[in-house]
Design brief:
Chain lengths: 187, 127
Amino acid sequence: MSMTYSYYKNMQLNNIIFVYQGEVTADLVSSILQMVENKLEGEGEDRKVKKRVFNVMVECLQNVYHHLDALPPTDPSNPVRDKTALLMIGREEKDYYIITGNHILNDRLPDLKMRLDRINKASKEELKQLYQEVLTGTGFSEKGTAGLGMIDIARKSGQRLGYDFHPVNERYSFFSLEARVSRIAEK
Amino acid sequence: MESLRIESTHKTPRVILDPENGIFEFSGRSIPEDSVGFYTPIFEWLDMYAKQPLPQTHVRFDLEYFNTSSSKNILEVLKRLEAIHLAGHEVRVTWFYDEDDEDMEETGQDYQALLNLPIELSVKVQS
């Protein structure tokens, strides 16, 4: 129990509103969205900022839900694959931040890195164009999502996406993504 | 032809497709994980309607939020309306957005740019 206070202080210092580590299911994503939305509502955040945070949060969380790579079971007596991830939302003086972390197969890493770098280099106008291109491109990706999520997150965030790949073993890495939304509603 | 009515949930919009008066409505939020599952019956309905549409159809989009997988499905809805319009039937789309919601305004502009269909952007009157 002695750790409780340090967890509390640590979360407070890092302005964490919400953190979750565990399996990501559709129901869980819904519950988190509802809870954080209520919290933003209750704290009287600017309506426009609130909408943007909610939008970016929807994309980030659904992105993890659709695209995380489950780890193979480590315990032979429990053949369930590990679909756990980290979801975190915080509020600093100037920005809200949404951080997700999940395992990804190393094979998928170069393509994802390329896409993120392309998005981060694009101007506002180029992002708009990229969004329209992907929107009108044919079909959905194999998991039924439009592949638009990251572009939309970048458009709504208006800031560069932070990311990191932490090597786990020869097959997997841990992918973290950070999206920020300014609390200053520009006119 | 029967009308199609779907009540809103906290993840899916209210949908009214009424073939009696030609007034269609999509309102609320559209953030389901499985957006294809939600929109498929709507596509099927519109494909039927396209065979014998009314001379005038008015479609109101009054959406608060939608996720990117819904945005692709909304484009598919609009493409079906575009086909009806290009076949010589009047189709008007009104895209509502809150005055301070430039993201929703911009999404309306994205659709305007992509389609050969009259889409009017309209600021929502605060209730």
